[in-house]
Design brief:
Jelly Rolls; 8 strands; about 110 residues; mainly beta; four-stranded antiparallel β-sheet
């Protein structure tokens, strides 16, 4: 299991100051869900609350074929975003009824 602390994240100016947390329910395993990261977001983190592995993609329909694996107990942090446009992320979990946590900072 890997993890990181806030000290592991390097954020370029402007420094984000406003967090928003989303708890998204993935009712079915191996089913694609999406979340729109709000315009103005400078970075975001995503993780599964339970024991699921997450599959993260940036293209609809590819979360089961072309994805980044986020192992159970780990978080994925976006690189520094420009904060100007919204971004849709697509994800799958390996277990049903998983809560996916998304933290956005503006």
């Amino acid at each position: 299991m890997s993890s990181f602390s806030p000290g592991d994240i390097v954020v370029k100016t402007p420094n984000p100051t406003n967090p928003t947390i989303y708890n998204l329910t993935a009712s079915l395993a191996a089913t694609e869900y999406n979340h729109v990261v709000a315009a103005g977001t400078l970075y975001f983190k995503i993780s599964a609350r339970g024991l699921s592995t997450l599959k993260l993609s940036f293209t609809s329909g590819q979360s089961g074929t072309v994805y980044v694996t986020i192992p159970s107990g780990s978080k994925w942090c976006s690189p520094n975003l420009s904060g100007t446009a919204s971004l849709t992320i697509y994800f799958q979990t390996t277990k049903s009824n998983e809560v996916v946590e998304v933290e956005e900072w503006t």
